[in-house]
Amino acid sequence: MAAPSYTEDLTDISLMETGETGVVALNISGGGGGTPAYGIDFKMQGTGCFDKAASNAERAIAVNKTPGAGTVATGVHIFQWGFVATPGVCENLATRGVYLVCGTSATNFMQFHVEGSETIGAVGRVGKCYAYDYVTTSNTGSVPYRTVNGSPGATPTYFGYGLNTNATVKGSNMGMDAVRYGTGGFITAGDSGTPATFDGFSTQNDSETNRWGILTNIGGSYELQGTFAIGQNNGGTATLAYFEDSDVSITLIDTVHSTTDFTKFIIDHASTEVYWTNITITALGTNNPGELTVVNSASVFEVVGGTWTGLGTTDLEAACTVDGLTWRGCGAVTANGATFDSCVFDQSTATDALVIADLDDITTCHFASDGTGHAIDLGTISATASMEWDSTTSGYASSDGTTGDETILVDIDSPYVLTINSVAGATKPTIHKTGTGTVTVLEAQVTIAVTVLDDDTGSAIGTTARVLLYDTADYSTEILNSACSAGGVASTTQSYTADIDVEGWVREMSTTGTDYTPADISGTVTSAGFALTVRLKPID
Fold it and tell me: Is residue 292 over pLDDT 60?
């Protein structure tokens, strides 16, 4: 197979290089303002950019262009590079400290607020690519802030970057660089010897010639905005890929002016193989939290370790295996035949943390509720079935019902019966059942057994010996109170839900025959049960 291929589907509107026509100044407030000049001081992409001063005024640089590949319509995402040299004198975010310009003329345009004095240079950067979806309605007064000027039309031809400053500055303090439109990046090819990697894509993304603004290296970790498609080419056609990486941290930018599904990981093609080990994904916001989708059921996607925080939906397929991954504060995970081992679903924001058809596809996972929603949505059961449950939970309803926060939601109609075998060590699941069928949860039974022997002979004392064990939590609950069998064993069984510390005694109760010195006993009933052998000393 060929070496990995890293491409994108971005169409240039303008790269803002020398000789570019249609570059204009938008002097929005304060009057005056010079014409934008070409230079290299603030360049991010290519060999230069256009710069201008915004001194105690509101100014922008814009380019009047109709892209050669067609029009930019409402709903199309624009990638805009800009640079601010004086972040300390910019107004705040609400009053357009830094903004993007998009519209149909120099007087009919939208301003998309992207930074302010309280963000840029603190959590932001002075040179950055911003992605946004062109819309023509204002949102003044609430985040995301937008300002409308005149009557912007549906197909913009003016694209720009601007500042609103509150002090006098020396010289140019802003630069506008490459502006493009599209969806994101595409990865194909590679093999086990030369796999595709995040760093491989980022190296192409960050080269000065490209500066795509999709997956950006920010000092050892990465920022992602837009599509990251593994196994698709930049025409959207499935093309196999081999991708393997480990110990990578990726932040998903909250592009507040984009569509809510703008940033996404896509895995496609029947022969694509993807192996992620300890990949950390953190979504910074709520407008565009990102999502991960495996498109083809034959695509191999193996995940080991890692923590995904704030991610939107995760949609997997049958050839996917997930081992030791934590979803924290994420949207719904849909299995579609995928398997999960030792995973954690913590504080899911979805109605159902995991949508899965078979509990046997889940092994020793943990589900922690945020107070609402189910851990599992089993969907519709259309046949009598038996499944095993060996996971633990916290925060879900303690009894079956329809409150919406039971462990498992299932729809089953008569005459079908679903039997869930809750094994030792698991948290017994509570059930929210719809339909007229039957759901039975069988708890694991553990054996508690004490064997009593004569210390001199090693033989069983027999039925005259008796054992008593109490739960030390209150010393009123008897765990075992029984005479021994002829073989010297006192035993019982009970459901196991958690470890129990026990204390008690062993005595020989007969008034005839050999007498024995009583013995105190203690221990813990675990998921393996309780087994103890006690040797009583005969009294001479």
Answer: yes
Burial class of residue 360 in the structure, from the number of CB atoms within 10 Å of its CB (0-12 exposed, 13-18 middle, 19+ buried): middle
10 Å CB burial of residue 321 (0-12, 13-18, 19+) is middle
Q: Where are the beta strands (DSSP E) in 343-444?
A: 344-346, 352-355, 362-363, 366-368, 374-381, 385-389, 392-394, 408-412, 417-422, 431-434, 438-443
Element of type H or E holding 81? strand 77-84
Q: Tell how many helices (H) and how many strands (E) occur in the chain.
A: 1, 46
Name residue 62's beta-bridge partners. Answer: 24, 160
What pLDDT is attached to residue 190? 96
In this structure, the number of other CB atoms found within 10 A of the CB of residue 425 comes to: 18
The token pair that represents 175 in the structure block: 């630069």
- Does residue 32 register a pLDDT over 80? no
How much is the pTM? Answer: 0.86
Alpha-carbon distance of 79 to 377, in angstroms, equals 39
Q: Pick from 519, 504, 501: which is nearest to 453 by CA?
A: 519
Could you give the CA distance from residue 132 to residue 119 in angstroms, rounded to a whole number? 18
Where residue 123 falls among pLDDT bands split at 50, 70, 90? low
Average pLDDT score, the chain:
94
Q: Residues 418-431: what's their mean pLDDT? A: 92
Q: Report yes or no: 256 and 285 within 8 Å, Cβ to Cβ.
A: yes
Residue 67, Cβ neighbours under 10 Å: how many?
A: 17
Helices within 67-213 (DSSP H only) = 198-206
CATH of 10-181, one of 2.40.30, 1.25.40, 2.60.120, 1.10.20: 2.60.120
CB 474 within 8 A of CB 491: no
Asked whether the beta carbons of 418 and 395 are under 8 A apart, the reply is: no
Kindly report each contact of residues 17-20 with a partner whose C-beta sits within 8 Å and lies 24 or more positions away, as own/partner: 17/46, 17/47, 17/48, 18/47, 18/48, 20/50, 20/63
What's the confidence (pLDDT) of residue 498?
83
Give domain 445-536's CATH superfamily. Answer: Carboxypeptidase-like, regulatory domain (2.60.40.1120)
The 10s digit of each residue's pLDDT in 293-330 is 999 999 999 999 999 999 999 999 999 999 999 999 99
Question: Among candidates 334, 337, 344, 308, which has minimal Cα distance to 321?
Answer: 337
Q: How far is CA 462 from the centre of its chain?
A: 60
